[in-house]
Design goal:
The complex is a heterodimer of chains A (about 325) and B (about 500). Chain A is an alpha/beta fold and about 325 residues long. Chain A contains 11 helices and 10 strands. The N and C termini of chain A lie far apart (about 55 Å).
Chain lengths: ~325, ~500
């Protein structure tokens, strides 16, 4: 009886293993031969979701297979990344990633042990935005922060918004009280309603409020002034050593073979250079900084960021 | 404005757009009636198809689907105790008992009338008051949101069917479930036990489907299901004069409440229907009849959720701020169509916006007109013997739950809550307070803590602002009043006994 079970089990195991072998040896050469899933750790409609859908649409043409966007909302994007980490690295699972470094530093994901970077496509610039009737410029904001303290809103807890706000406090010694919101929409409502003094946000999502005159950027976290906002000072010229922002790219399970990663990488590069994508990036004010980083440079950048942010959190 | 409206009418009445509206209503009906398939999901699924349309047709389709799903969630809620969408959860409380007592056609009729009136009311507000109300909504800050949630929570007494202590335990349990996951304000893991599934928190939909639908399937499995459910052949009477006389006040109040709560950023139709159900119980002269098939108990959530769904479009179209989960998806849809929603949308895209307005008005009318044949189809399902129907419902629950965020973990959560819900019905433990806790818990907690963050830890923040102070004082009074009344009665009776 025992022998039979063992025999059956070993037959089953060997069939299973040969099956796996067949699939993986086949898939590296023929990749991609079936639908690819892009996991999004945030709800539909948000920045990362829009990014994944825009790129996914164009990537379909590049790779010639269907691409399904799967929203796995939760835990600031960690759920999707952890799910991807547990999947086989066959190139059929990708994650549209943002906040990779802070999530790793916080211990919510395994980081580069679980996932390997494929390419970065967006590097957005943080700005501090406020009602122009309250603060005319950054100096007034600083004055208020020194005198009575200011409430600055951001999205998420322990994410890039909060970390950047903390870095700003560390660099400048200003009395900034960080107020976290669950979604950008709630934060925009609080800023427009005057319930917070300022908010951390990229120019893209706030551009309609800027053009309507409800909000103005006070400072840009960049080394050069931004094209559309020539009057707005940068952190670097104010002697604040911070040029952070939101970075979006794609990561894959860590055991994805090099050949497949480089194939996706070059397809993504074609997407990045395409007219459609560049038009989208321009419409969304994503062109202030070069977004593209190949897999190696992206990995290096993430390593540095994780180290730097881990220090801040400790 | 009149000109824009006329332009809107002209656009919407093009044959292609009318066809789109009709099909959207049908798709929305179907999706809303199936558990787990919510408006949010349908909009996401159909979004890629709309890339080929011109923008107006695309958004007519998406907004019409959105309105229709909010409406049709009540069909399965009433017939099978399966809320088809989270917005319909409060409709289960009275809709299902009424249907069970043989009046399913009446229950559906009340729901249709209330939904239609709520939806049309919400749309009219949307058309005429969008800019004004959007700025009113902006004056609401965290302390007010907390006050609102607190007021909703105090209704537990009336939701617990005379068993106050059980009700309080239920609410506390619901509030506890709502704390599971990564804390949105500090990033700390709470009750996650290092499980990836739990760190994202317990999703609302699996809890609702488990507690209501799965529990009912389990319960019915024990019953003698040979008896034929009647009602399946009775005609649906949409409008009954006597009933309408009873519920028109509730409809009016709930439509007003629903629209306003919908307008508030971040508070959606589910919360609106819960809160207006609570208020219907509170304002009723006979609160004990709720939960047993009261017509007001169907009218309140149904008029509220449909009007709130329209209200949620106010901040979206006026400010580019989502009023709820589905409107957040619509913002993404705007961006993917190359439009940026924001304070200028009403001016720069007035043709599109007014076409959407007119489209919604038509859809809400179509809902009343078209729902009858559709629901008739659905009531036919009731003729299927339950030993076949039950497993089918269970299957749809599993598929629907999985589809919410593609998570097998959620399916387990749903099954566990199904077992719990079954247990609760066996020991006669009210389920409604748990739902109250799960729905309002996150709002109450986050806004409470955010208020304190905003004020730098100053507790007076809740009382410095008139609206929040008012809401909180009223809530506390409602909590304390029954106790005082009891005490008063006691001392009076003891006085009497002393005198005697």
């Amino acid at each position: 009886m025992k022998g039979k079970v063992l025999l059956l089990a070993s037959i089953g195991l060997s069939v299973f293993l040969t099956g796996c072998d067949a699939v993986s040896s086949e898939s590296v050469e023929d990749y991609p031969s079936r639908d690819i899933e892009i996991l999004v750790g945030h709800g539909p409609g948000g920045g990362t979701d829009v990014f994944a859908r825009t790129v996914g649409d164009l990537l379909e043409e590049e790779l010639g297979v269907n691409i399904n966007i799967v929203n796995m909302e939760g835990a600031g994007g960690a759920t999707a990344k952890n799910e991807a980490g547990s999947r086989p690295g066959d190139g059929y699972t990708l994650v549209a990633s943002s906040a990779f470094a802070p999530a790793t530093a916080q211990g919510n994901i395994e980081g580069l042990d679980d996932l390997r970077p494929v390419a970065r496509m967006q590097s957005d610039v943080f700005t501090v935005l406020a009602n122009p009737e309250v603060y005319e410029d950054f100096d007034e904001f600083v004055e208020a922060a020194e005198n009575e303290g200011v409430e600055v809103g951001g999205v998420g807890a322990g994410d890039m918004d909060e970390i950047t706000a903390n870095l700003l406090i560390e660099e400048t010694g200003l009395d900034i009280n960080y107020v976290s919101f669950e979604g950008a929409g709630d934060m925009h409502a609080a800023a427009l309603g005057g319930h917070i003094d300022a908010m951390m946000e990229e120019p893209g999502p706030a551009v309609e409020y800027i053009s309507s005159g409800d909000l103005i950027p006070l400072i840009a976290f960049n080394d050069e002034r931004l094209d559309d906002f020539e009057d707005i000072p940068t952190t670097v010229e104010k002697d604040i050593d911070l040029i952070d922002g939101v970075e979006r790219g794609f990561v894959a399970p860590a055991d994805t073979p090099d050949e497949i990663v480089s194939e996706i990488e070059s397809a993504l590069q074609n997407v990045y250079e395409s007219e459609e994508y560049q038009q989208h990036a321009e419409d969304q004010y994503l062109t202030y900084r070069e977004g593209w980083l190949g897999s190696e440079e992206y990995e290096q950048k993430l390593e540095e960021d994780i180290e730097r942010i881990s220090e801040v959190i400790d | 404005m009149i000109e824009s409206l006329l332009m809107g009418i002209e656009t919407v009445f093009q044959p292609l757009n009318l066809l789109i509206l009709f099909s959207a209503v049908f798709i929305g009906f179907l999706g809303g009636a199936l558990p787990g398939i919510s408006g949010t999901m349908l909009v996401v699924i159909l979004l890629p198809i709309t890339y080929g349309f011109d923008t107006t047709s695309a958004f007519l389709l998406l907004t019409a689907i959105y309105a229709a799903t909010v409406f049709s969630g009540m069909i399965s809620a009433i017939l099978f105790r399966t809320p088809g969408t989270p917005e319909a959860v409060a409709t289960v409380f009275d809709g299902y008992p009424m249907a069970k007592s043989g009046h399913s056609s009446r229950a559906l009729g009340i729901a249709i009338v209330s939904s239609g009136i709520g939806g049309i009311f919400g749309t009219l507000v949307l058309i005429f008051l969008t800019p004004v109300l959007a700025s009113v909504a902006l004056t609401f800050s965290s302390p007010e949101f907390f006050g609102l949630a607190l007021l909703g929570l105090t209704v537990v007494a009336s939701l617990s069917a005379g068993q106050l202590s059980k009700g309080i335990i239920g609410v506390a349990f619901g509030l506890f479930i709502a704390t599971i996951g990564i804390d949105p304000l500090s990033g700390t893991q709470r009750y996650t036990f290092d499980m990836n599934g739990l760190s994202a928190g317990v999703e609302l939909i699996p809890v609702l489907i488990g507690l209501f639908a799965v529990a009912e399937v389990l319960k019915k499995g024990r019953e003698n299901t040979k008896e034929k459910q009647e009602a399946s052949n009775t005609k649906i009477k949409i409008f009954e004069k006597e009933i309408f006389k009873k519920i028109y006040r509730t409809i009016t109040r709930s439509s007003l409440m629903g629209t306003f709560i919908g307008i508030l950023p971040g508070v959606g139709a589910t919360t609106a229907s819960m809160l207006s159900y609570s208020e219907a119980v509170r304002w009723s002269k006979n609160p004990k009849k709720f939960g047993k098939g009261a017509p007001e108990g169907i009218a309140a959530p149904e008029s509220a959720n449909n009007s709130a769904a329209m209200g949620a479009l106010v901040p979206l179209l006026a400010l580019g701020i989502p009023g709820s989960a589905t409107t957040a998806v619509l913002i993404g849809a705007f961006i993917l169509h190359g439009l940026q929603p924001g304070p200028n949308l009403l001016e720069t895209q007035s043709n599109l916006v007014y076409a959407i307005f007119i489209g919604l008005l038509i859809v809400n009318t179509l809902i009343i007109v078209c729902s009858k044949p559709f629901i008739k189809l659905f009531t036919k399902i009731m003729n299927i013997p339950y030993y076949i129907l039950g497993p089918i419902i269970l299957m749809f629950c599993i598929i629907g739950t999985f589809a919410v965020r593609n998570s097998v973990f959620d399916v387990w959560v749903m099954l566990i809550f199904g077992a719990l819900g079954y247990l609760f019905t066996r020991i006669n433990f009210p389920v409604a307070p748990i739902v109250l806790g799960v729905v309002l818990g996150p709002i109450a907690e986050d806004e409470f803590r955010r208020s304190l963050q905003l004020s730098g830890g100053n507790w007076f923040v809740f009382f410095e602002r008139p609206v929040s102070a008012g809401l909180i004082i009223v809530a506390v009074l409602f909590l304390v009043y029954p106790l005082i009344k009891k005490l008063f009665k006691k001392s009076k009776s003891s006085l009497q006994s002393e005198a005697g």
